[in-house]
Every structure is written in structure tokens, then in C-alpha cells.
Amino acid sequence: MTSADSTIYRAPDCPIKRHLVALHLQSAMAKFSNGCVIVVALICFLAMLSRTANGQLSSTFYSSTCPNLQSIVRSAMTQAVNREKRIGASILRLFFHDCFVNGCDGSILLDDTSSFTGEKTAGPNNNSVRGFDVIDTVKTNVESACPSTVSCADILALAARDGVVLLGGPTWTVLLGRRDATTASLSTANSDLPSPASSLSQLISAFSNKGLNARDLTALSGGHTIGQSRCVNFRAHIYNDANIDSAFATSRQANCPSASGSGDDNLAPLDLQTPVVFDNDYYKNLVVRKGLLHSDQELFNNGSQDSLVRQYSNNNAAFSNDFTAAMIKMGNISPLTGSSGQIRVNCRKVNG
């Protein structure tokens, strides 16, 4: 109140009048206080609506509802990676294959049922994507601490980051607040996931359709610095392509017969040198024509990405910076937020 306002409520000499004035003051202050509470509540509600409407994710989404979430995920991922180094790459790929099919919504985790066909049997996923048991374990641990609070989609996003970090790669802030899909799309998985036989133009187009540019494509492809691939995915490249080092092709042919259907599931490291260390050797291999997949070598084949591949091969920090930025960008593809979707209690099935 101003000094002029204060004179209006100056307590008079009469005790009765002073009491009446005090009651008037208390009533006025109560109304003012209640009004503030209402206004603050309204502001918070509008902010929540705005975030929901815009589909925005936040790094602090579970700070009050599940404050130990990230340490729970990291602990389970540490145990999983200690058991098998390859699992870090598998979880990273699982996240990529989730986000590229109707957004990062955990749909790839859904099992088929008698009345429902999910994404696991799609061509790019069948007998290929793995790590579902690890996500199950993480989810069980999270549910014990924070029941029906954290989505499977968010758990997958955190686990993918942790797998990279545990193999020596960079870290990044994972934005959270996704909800889980109640359905999946076999047809979209078959059409939208890039093939290992893709040309550069096909790769650029597939990523562009998801809001990712050519630089994002080249940076995210660096995820192939860890993990392995099946013979069926690289057979054509090592037997038919000309843009491959001959000695490298011969070495890979030893464990991948030319006949289709023979040795299809035999594995080879995507990064010849350090397959369980997240570094920039993948790009060094491309420069000397030792990319395992046709789609890998397309990034360095007298095309638009050659200079960026050279840059990454010479500068691991540049690769790490672009990779983390692209991972955050990819993680924001069409998330379900607000009242959309649900928080699945079991990542493999929709809540009953």
C-alpha cells in the first residue's frame, strides 16, 4: 500500500473502532491471499496445458515423482553392459528403431498377441533387434521405486544414453515426459526404417521424413562404431560392391558365405577396430573403404557427406558434439505427451 493508503487504515483512538478496523484488514488480506493462490494455480495450470499442447519434453519431468530414476536406470544398464558389452549397441539401436516408427513411443517393445501384431517381426527387426529383457529389468526396478509413473519410452531413451556412456561415449541430457503407445505399426516399421542396402539419397530422404537433416544422418550413423551386424545385412556389399577394400571384403567373406540363406545370422563387428568402444573409428574405416554395410559406405562414396565423414574421422570431439545433438533431436520425434497414450506397467503389453 502507498503512504496515502495507509492513512485510511490508521487505527483510531476508540478501542471498538480499532477492533472493527482490524477485522476489516484481516478480511481484505484473506481475500488478497486467496486471490494470489488462485492466480498462481491458474498460471501453473496454463503452463501445464501449454507444455502438453506443444508436446514439449523436460529434463526435470520426474524430479518430484521419481527423483532416483536416472540412477536406477544407470545401475541396471551398468550390470547389463558388464555382462555383455554388445548390449549397449543393441539398446541404442532399439531406441532408433522405436523413434523411426510413429515417434519415440515405446511401440517397438510390444509383443504380438493373438489379436495384435506389433513391430518386432517387421523385416528390419525380426531376429535382429534385441535387448528387450534388459528393458524389462530396468522397468521392474523403476516400478518398484515409482509405480505407474515412468513410461517405457522414457526408460528406453535413458537406457540408450547410458549404454553409449558406459562404452566410453559422450553423455547428453535426456529430455523426458514421453508416454507409451497403445498400438504399433508393422507396416510403418517395414516402410520407414532405412535398409542396409540404402543409397545415400534414400538415407537422406528417410531421415528427412523424420525431421532429421543430412548432418544428423551422418552423425547418428556413427552409432555403428559399436555393435555387430548379421551376414544377411552385409553379404551383398562384400561380394558385389566395388567401393570396398578388397582385403577387408575377403576377410569378411570368410564368415559370410555368398549363398543366400547360408550363415545369415553369422556376426561381424560394424567397427573393425574397436567394436565395444564408442569412438570415431567408424569414420576412419569409411575413409579407407572398410564400412561393413553398403549404407555405411554410402556416406563416403564421392557424395555430399564425404567432407563431414573426413571431419569426424579426424575430430572425435566434433563427432561427439553432433551425435549428442542429433540424439536429442531424434528423441523428440512425435512423442506422446499429456493425456495421450499411457504409462505401461509392463513394457511388452498394453495395460489391461
Pattern of helices and strands = HHHHHHHHHEHHEHHHH
Largest sheet: 2 strands, antiparallel
- How far apart are the termini? 58 Å
Radius of gyration: 27 Å
Q: How many β-strands, per DSSP?
A: 2
Mean pLDDT: 89
- Give the quaternary arrangement of the chains: single chain
Shape: globular
Helix content: 40-55%
Query: Please, how many helices?
Result: 15
Task: Give unreliable regions as ranges.
Answer: 1-23, 28-33, 35-54
- Which band does the percent of strand residues land in? under 5%
Strand order of the largest sheet: 1-2
Descriptive report:
The structure is a single chain. Helix content is 51%, strand content 2%. With 352 residues, the protein is mainly alpha-helical. It has a two-stranded antiparallel ribbon. The termini are far apart. The N terminus is likely disordered.
Offer a concise description of the structure.
This protein is mainly alpha-helical and 352 residues long. It has helices spanning 3-8, 15-54, 69-83, 87-99, 132-145, 152-166, 186-192, 200-208, 214-220, 231-240, 246-253, 281-287, 294-297, 306-314, 316-330, and strands spanning 228-230, 267-269.
Q: Which short descriptors sum up this protein?
A:
about 350 residues, mainly alpha, 15 helices, 2 strands, about 50% helix, globular, Peroxidase 1
Question: What's the arrangement of secondary structure elements?
Answer:
Layout (H helix, E strand, L loop, with lengths): L2 H6 L6 H40 L14 H15 L3 H13 L32 H14 L6 H15 L19 H7 L7 H9 L5 H7 L7 E3 H10 L5 H8 L13 E3 L11 H7 L6 H4 L8 H9 L1 H15 L22
Antiparallel strand pairs: 1-2
Helix pairs in contact: 3-5, 3-6, 4-6, 9-15, 10-11, 12-14, 14-15
